[in-house]
Amino acid sequence: LLARKTWDVSQGGSISLQLDGRYVDEQQYNTTNSALTLGGDYSVWNASLGYSHSGPDSEWSASVFVNNAFDEVYSTYRFDLSAFFGYSLIVHAPPRWIGARFRYSWK
After folding, report:
1. What is the DSSP letter of 34?
2. In whole angstroms, how far apart are CA 92 and each of 11, 13, 15, 23, 75?
3. Which candidate in 29, 67, 78, 79 could, as Cys together with 89 as Cys, close a disulfide (CB 3.0–4.6 Å)?
4. pTM, two decimal places
C-alpha cells in the first residue's frame, strides 16, 4: 500500500509526503515446514517528507524518512539447522531507521 501527495509551493519547488506499508501473513521460510522455520505475521510502515527544487541550471532535493516506523520485530529468513548443529538460524529485519537524504544534480 502506498500513498503519495505532492504540493507545488514556489517557482520550481514542491513538497511531498509519502506513506507506505505492507502486511505479510505467517510464512514458511524453508521447504521442511518445521516449526522452527515458521515466521509470524507482521506489518511494516514507512514515511517520508521531502522538498525538491528544479531550476534552470540544477535540481536538488532533501527529505527525512522513517523506515519500520513502529519498530516491528520480524524475521526475513529462518533456517533449521537443528538436525546437524542443534540450533536454528534466524535473520531479523532492521529495526526502526530514521534518516535524511540530500541530492544535487547539474543540468
Report:
1. -
2. 44, 39, 34, 16, 4
3. 79
4. 0.83
Q: What is the DSSP letter of 68?
A: S
The number of angstroms, rounded, from the C-alpha of 5 to the middle of its chain's C-alpha atoms is: 18
If we measure between CA atoms, which residue out of 94, 87, 93, 92 comes closest to residue 34? 87
**13-24 β-sheet, strand order:** 2-10, 13-24, 42-54, 58-67, 97-106
On the CB side of 102, CA atoms within 13 Å amount to 0
The one-letter amino acid code at 62 reads A
Taking only the tens place, the pLDDT of each residue in 44-88 is 999 999 999 998 889 999 999 999 999 999 999 998 888 889 888
Find cell 500500500 and name the residue: 1
- Give the pLDDT confidence score for residue 87 in this predicted structure: 86
